[in-house]
Amino acid sequence: SYMSVRNFQRVFKKATGQSPIDYLIHIRLERAKKMLRESNEQVADIAIQSGFNEYNYFSRKFKNAVGISPLKYRMRFKPSSS
After folding, report:
1. DSSP 21-57
2. Which of 49, 52, 67, 82 is the most buried (most CB within 10 A)?
3. Three-state SS at 80
4. String of b and e for 40-76 (b: at least 16 CB within 10 Å)?
């Protein structure tokens, strides 16, 4: 892009309203939410598949963004299989 890192961050935030890392975390959390609703995989595996290297970091970011833990999200939004 022929820009300095700082200039890229400034342009990116102006275009999206978020820093590049916040945008990436948002995209990863959206993928995790979809997987929590649609799959039976372990939450820790979903964290890894969504791009988070540590479950605790994923869980903290998820709870900050969504307001509930990933497990509670799954229980609330995934239809029961009964």
Report:
1. HHHHHHHHHHHHHHHHHH----HHHHHHHTT-S-HHH
2. 52
3. coil
4. eeebeebbeebebeebeebbebbeeeeeeebeebbee
- What's the whole-model pTM score? 0.85
What pLDDT, on a 0 to 100 scale, did the predictor assign at position 64? 97
Nearest to 69 by CA among 38, 47, 40: 47
Per-residue pLDDT of the chain (82 residues; tens, 9 = 90+): 789 999 999 999 999 999 999 999 999 999 999 999 999 999 999 999 999 999 999 999 999 999 999 999 999 987 665 4
> CA Rg, the chain, in Å?
15
Total residues found in the chain within this entry: 82
Contacts of 40 (CB under 8 A, 6+ apart): none
List Cβ neighbours of 21 (8 Å cut-off, separation of 6 or more): none
